[in-house]
Amino acid sequence: MIETRLLHQFIAVAEELHFNRAAKRLHMAQPPLSQAIRRLEEEVGVPLFERTNRRVSLTPAGCAFLVSSRKILNQLNESVEQTRRISQGIEGYLTLTFINIAPYRGLSDALRRFRHKFPAVAFTMQEATTQEQVLALEEGRADLGFMRLSGRTAPGLRFESVFCEPVLVALPASHRYADNTIIPLSAFQDDMFVSSPRHLGQGFHDQLIQLCEAAGFVPRIAQQARQLQTLVALVASGFGVALLPASLAQDGRKDVVFRPIEVDAPDKLRYVELVMAWREHDPSILRDRLLDEVRHAMVSTLCD
Fold first, then answer.
1. Which of residues 39, 61, 87 is at a domain's end?
2. Domain tally, the chain
3. DSSP 8-state secondary structure symbol assigned to residue 54
4. What residues form DSSP beta bridges with 241?
5. Where are the alpha helices (DSSP H) in the chain?
6. Comparing C-alpha atoms, which of 143, 146, 145, 8 is closest to residue 73?
7. What single DSSP character describes residue 48?
8. Domain membership of residue 36 as a residue range
9. Taking a C-beta distance cutoff of 8 angstroms, is the pair 157, 280 a contact?
10. 253 with 130, same domain?
């Protein structure tokens, strides 16, 4: 393997076309420089210079090697600088996974500010369910996830609440209780429900089941959908009612209404949290800076 020191020495001789001047430029004696160039030519396997008593000139192979040497050293310098910028948290890559974050304006503001501060950071954004996000984090395919976990944990991952919102009931606009201001959850014991599948979001799914059980019934689930926005569409189509985070009410649909519910249940069931999750023992300056940006943006939205 050719040392970068030899490349620097070769470039100096190639630019000066004079061993004494090149040696002075490199702050070294001329004989060791001549020996270094001969050693380089031996390693390359071809003459790089034509030498006479009057002049030194590059061979055609030497001209080509000069171009390659400059490129190699430039790439090496760029790699070193990039490594320094990454170590300083100025440049790098982040892979984020998330549920629908459109309703959370503070989170969008945090991402925008972070990108403004660190424009050299490249993002990969992947929408995924909670279960998919946990798996991606555990396998190292994601750096940070935004999900609804409802009190569950996963070994090696750290979870932090960033937003708390009440659970509301979503009704078709034609539903018998659509005009009510607040509705006892027990009033829906004879209704059909739509929900997300348990295997895609076990914690949130179980929370809603327990909420209904606290109201004295087990919900009858007529349809399931992967995305919560799809559940809103199913409610509008008359497939059933749904228990959903209040942020879904921001869509402004006229064919679905969201109403507060009355139920004798602890806050951990009546409210749902958006959490951010990351690998606890995997250091990342970039990720930590983004965490701080999110904390700053969402500080006023946490549960008490």
1. 87
2. 2
3. S
4. 193
5. 4-16, 19-26, 30-44, 60-87, 105-117, 130-138, 202-214, 228-236, 267-270, 285-298
6. 8
7. -
8. 4-87
9. yes
10. yes
* Distance of alpha carbon 259 from alpha carbon 246, whole angstroms: 9
CATH number of the domain enclosing 216? 3.40.190.290
- Rounded to 5 degrees, φ, ψ at 52 are -130, 175
CATH of the domain at 27: 1.10.10.10
Burial class (CB in 10 A: 0-12, 13-18, 19+), 222: middle
Q: Is the pLDDT of residue 59 over 70?
A: yes
The number of residues in the chain equals 304
pLDDT tens digits for 60-113?
999 999 999 999 988 888 777 777 666 666 668 899 999 877 677 788 889 999
Same domain? 126 vs 275: yes
How distant, in Å, are the alpha carbons of 145, 191, 252 from that of 227? Answer: 17, 21, 17
Reply yes or no on whether the pLDDT at 22 is more than 60: yes
Q: Give the model's confidence band at 304: pLDDT under 50 very low, under 70 low, under 90 confident, else very high.
A: very low
pLDDT at 107: 87
CB 150 within 8 A of CB 272: yes
For 258, residues 6+ apart whose C-beta sits below 8 A from its C-beta are 168, 169, 170, 171, 244, 246, 248, 249
In this prediction the pTM is: 0.66
**pLDDT interval class at 219 (50, 70, 90):** very high
- How many angstroms separate the CA atoms of 30 and 47, rounded? 19
Would you state the pLDDT for residue 152? Answer: 58
280, 145 Cβ separation under 8 angstroms: no
Instruction: State whether residue 254 is helix, strand or coil.
Output: coil
- Pair (99, 237) in one structural domain: yes
Do the beta carbons of residue 61 and residue 46 sit within 8 Å?
Answer: yes
Using the 3D structure, point to which of 87, 115, 131 is the last residue of a domain.
87
Please tell me whether residue 178 adopts helix, strand or coil conformation. coil
Amino acid at the residue 148? R
